[in-house]
Structure prediction request, 269 residues.
Amino acid sequence: METLIATLGLTTGRSNVPIEEFYRHSYPIVARFVAGMKGTDDDAKDIFQDAVIIYLEKNDQALLEPIKDQERYLLGIAKHLWLKKFSKSRHMIKLDEFESLLNIPEDFYPSIRTSLLLQFLESTGRKCLELLSDFYYRKLSMKSIADAYGFSTERSATVQKYKCIEKLREEVKNKSLLYEDFFE
Amino acid sequence: MKTSLNEVMTIEKHLEGTMTGPELVAFKTKMEMNSALQTNVSMQSRLISLLRIYHRKKVKYQLEQVHLHLLKTDFRNSIQSIFNP
Prediction:
């Protein structure tokens, strides 16, 4: 499990609590809420994991006080995710002032067209997707990327990064036009 | 190829918001006059958004592995007691 933690880089704010401990501690908070709404353990798992993803993104953007807000944030986001999934529950969930200020990123539930496009890129350029997401979203340095992908120098890794952007950008362009014809 | 890589780097700089002053003005002017460049900027921006969705999928998969791992411990009983008190 240590390798996974290192791979994910998922630590929780200042205390550096490993993801497993974080999960064990925080999951029941969301599970109790979902159980109270008559949801299943699968609903709870799905909502909790999505809430963690959103939490980590906000944490990366330094929009939260890492530890102080963590549990409130997860529960608040879980409520929003539940409402998104089961809008009929709207009258049953009360959001406090803190929770009502939270939101789910607009692109969190991608459209069919976006999902198809991503599926296509995964089939044609997975290595490039990996490299670019490591750079843009795991925030790995070019040195770490060079080491991880077997490039002899940072410069080679940088050139490869740009080649990947160029390759995928062209594929997005071609495929987007195709999907526009198909969907519109 | 080299010109194209330069374009990718320039567009990246623009999308990151690190382009300023005369360089930014020149780039915007070029974009206004060049529809192919406009399309490339838009597609590169779309690619960055797709990468975010891809990254989320990866994190979700890894969280699922953590969940499965925890289910092999006493965590399973504590969760069951929430749903079947």
